[in-house]
Automatic annotation (TrEMBL):
Pfam families: MazG (PF03819), PRA-PH (PF01503)
Record domain NTP pyrophosphohydrolase MazG-like: where: 36-109
Superkingdom of origin organism: Bacteria
This enzyme's EC code(s): 3.6.1.8
Organism of provenance: Sulfitobacter brevis
Protein name stated in the entry: Nucleoside triphosphate pyrophosphohydrolase
Catalytic activity from the UniProt record: ATP + H2O = AMP + diphosphate + H(+)
UniProt-listed SUPFAM superfamilies: all-alpha NTP pyrophosphatases
CDD domains: NTP-PPase_MazG_Cterm, NTP-PPase_MazG_Nterm
């Protein structure tokens, strides 16, 4: 019967749950899958989430379907291990998130007025989450901001939480002044202080840059991803121009590559798609 389920392409989530049970079976499963635990699988979970975001960024919808399946498998994997340890099950996880969504949307599933602005709904959402944290004995303002988030995103979320209780600069001008101050301290640390102190000052500068993004309404993680993509695109343009002249980057020098970089930028701004 289990084999029938495993090969039934129309069986949906129950098929995937059974596949995972078979993979984790101590006697007949896959040795690699049997050896895994929450900690060893967590990096794959993070990686799959980024691959979902990458497919969305590239608008590759066919690939997104596969990446979403990979991400779903991560949830199935963790819940299988949770069930084996008697901690939770796939069904209890589904029930938990379903209950949470109903509780957090009283204007949809309850008797609250749905006629609210997006800003008011965001405030209500945050109030509900704060009450949930209080119920978990997470009374601190910063409690519940996941330590495992990418550092830039976590900085953004920590500052957002602090701002809710009034710990924030009132204007972007003050944030920019702080950036100038931190940049000066970094230069001073580089020239006169230890490597450890330079490391710390560099972190302070990045932290304030994340805060500037929040004040400007810019997600710093998304902005940096876009900058990474732009750098990749333009450097590939430099490589293409070098290749057209029979050269590679290591056969060039900074002056030549910088001039080609400027040409690629100008090409982009002119709206041209050809590399030359």
């Amino acid at each position: 019967m289990a084999d029938d389920l495993i090969h039934d392409q129309g069986a949906g989530i129950e098929r995937l749950l059974e596949i995972m049970r078979r993979l984790r079976d101590p006697k007949t499963g896959c040795p690699w899958d049997i050896e895994q635990d929450f900690a060893s699988i967590a990096p794959y979970t993070i990686e799959e989430a980024y691959e979902v975001a990458d497919a969305i960024e590239r608008q590759d919808w066919a690939e997104l379907e596969g990446e979403l399946g990979d991400l779903l498998l991560q949830s199935v994997y963790h819940t299988a291990m949770g069930e084996e340890a008697g901690l939770f099950s796939f069904q209890s996880v589904v029930r938990s998130i379903s209950d949470k969504m109903v509780a957090r949307h009283p204007h949809v599933f309850g008797d609250e007025d749905r006629d609210k602005s997006a800003e008011q709904q965001t405030r209500d959402w945050e109030a509900i989450k704060a009450a949930e944290r209080a119920g978990k004995a997470q009374g601190g303002t910063l409690d519940g901001v996941a330590v495992g988030l990418p550092a830039l995103l976590r900085a953004y979320k920590l500052q957002k939480r602090a701002a809710r209780v009034g710990f924030d600069w009132p204007s972007t001008d003050q944030v920019i002044d702080k950036i100038v101050e931190e940049a000066q301290e970094l230069v001073e640390a580089r020239d006169t202080l230890t490597e450890t102190e330079t490391f710390e000052e560099y972190g302070d500068l990045l932290f304030v840059m994340a805060n500037l993004g929040r004040h400007l309404g810019i997600d710093p993680e998304a902005a940096l991803r876009a900058a990474n993509a732009k750098f990749t695109r333009r450097f590939e343009g430099v490589e293409a121009r070098l290749a057209a002249s029979g050269k590679t980057p290591d056969q060039s020098d900074l002056a030549e590559m910088d001039a080609l970089w400027d040409a690629v930028k100008a090409n982009e701004r002119a709206g041209k798609s050809t590399p030359m």
